Amino acid sequence: MAANKAAEKAPAKATVPPMVMVIALVLALGVAGFFYLERVSNAPPPALAPLTGDAREYVRTRSLKLANVEMKANESYLKQSVVEITGTIQNAGDRRIKSVQIYCVFQDAFGQVVNRKRVFIVNPQSGGAAPGETKNFRLAFDDIPDSWNQATPDLIIAAIEFA
Which CATH number fits domain 53-162: 2.60.40, 1.10.10, 3.30.70, 2.60.120? Predict the structure, then answer.
């Protein structure tokens, strides 16, 4: 009988329901995931390689020539404005080119850069460009800010890879 009285007087142990523990764990993981993704998204992108010495010399001697550059705006199926830049690039040098990337620099009415994109105009999938060969290119952009001045962007050679 003494044992029953002791059991009656001992405070009951408080237990946390398993569902509360699961909810707390999910919330903790969610907060940790949010902070991780926030940190990763704010990290600067890796630096793109500048022109090599050979590539800089190839550009300086005007061995790559952009011509017939035209720009027009179209409306996509999603009623979104798409700016399309077309033209040709000629390899007037004596080296076979595997790929060429250019910067398309869009500016506002005050000459401030509002968008800068690095894109391929010659790539290995298209077979590169042999000496004397001319290739057509087409670039499409659908994310140019409204503050853009509607002028043809500056096209600057960013990288050349020789075959």
Answer: 2.60.40
pTM over 0.90: no
Give the pair of three-digit tokens for residue 136: 């057509």
Cβ atoms of 132 and 92 within 8 Å: the answer is yes
Average of per-residue pLDDT across 6-29? 80
Do residues 93 and 64 lie in contact, with contact meaning Cβ atoms separated by under 8 Å?
yes
Q: How many Å apart are CA 104 and CA 151, to the nearest integer?
A: 12
pLDDT value for 136: 92
C-alpha triplet 101, 110, 46: angle, nearest 5°: 35
Rounded distance between C-alpha atoms, residue 137 and residue 112, angstroms: 26
Residue 12 corresponds to which amino acid?
Answer: A
Q: Is the pLDDT of residue 135 over 60?
A: yes
